[in-house]
Amino acid sequence: MLIHxxxxxxxxxxDLPLWQPDYAIFFGVxxxxxxxxxxxxxxxxxxxxxxxxxxxxxxxx
Length: 61
Fold this sequence. Notes:
The termini are far apart. The protein is mainly α. The protein contains 1 helix and no strands. The longest helix is centred in the middle third of the chain and has 33 residues, at 21-53. It has one helix spanning 21-53.
């Protein structure tokens, strides 16, 4: 059992004391930011692939 303010010494994410508010807020924000970045990069790559496959797109410029 961890005391408040004591960190976990395990490399596994399921051993972190997420019931403590400071850990829950930090990891909640971290995973939200990573999710937003991942969705953004997925949309950018999907649009780039779509534009690269469209041969008529470059004739408009």
